[in-house]
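Fold this: protein-tyrosine-phosphatase
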Amino acid sequence: MTEQVRVIFVCWGNICRSPMAERVAEGWLDEAGITDVELTSAGVSSEETGNPIDRRAQQWLTEAGYRADDHRAHRITADEIDSADLIIAMEDIHVDRMHRLKPRRTDHIHLLTHFDPDAAPGAGVPDPWYGDHSGFGDTLASIEGAMPNLLAEIERLRSRSSATSMEE
């Protein structure tokens, strides 16, 4: 049996970008018929712990056909980082904050824009929380722009996981 691939999306408070990315990835994986991937999201800050997805993010997700319910923000831990196969951060500051948690490994942490061929190298996904409603549409477009290559990376990890399971 193939082990599930674990992917965690990370932003600052876990109420906008990271849950949006989680839900978009969920939709793309469902569309592709891929079911053996565990998706979750977290923040590097605890200030939003327990809060749902921002209402503006919920609206954009729902209008685009993605699920927007059943989410409570939480702060990522070193154990979560260590147990994931792939971690997708929204900005360099999130990568830095995860490194400060001193997990055993960090080679699997990448910026979401790393997977977007139209994004400038090292660019992050700007935080829409501080702007108006339309900023969430820009965030959604950035997330969707990264999905084809991100799904290809998830497929690579699934193949590796499957090969490892067969060897055991």
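Residues 5-159 form a domain with the Rossmann fold fold (CATH 3.40.50.2300). The mean pLDDT is 94.
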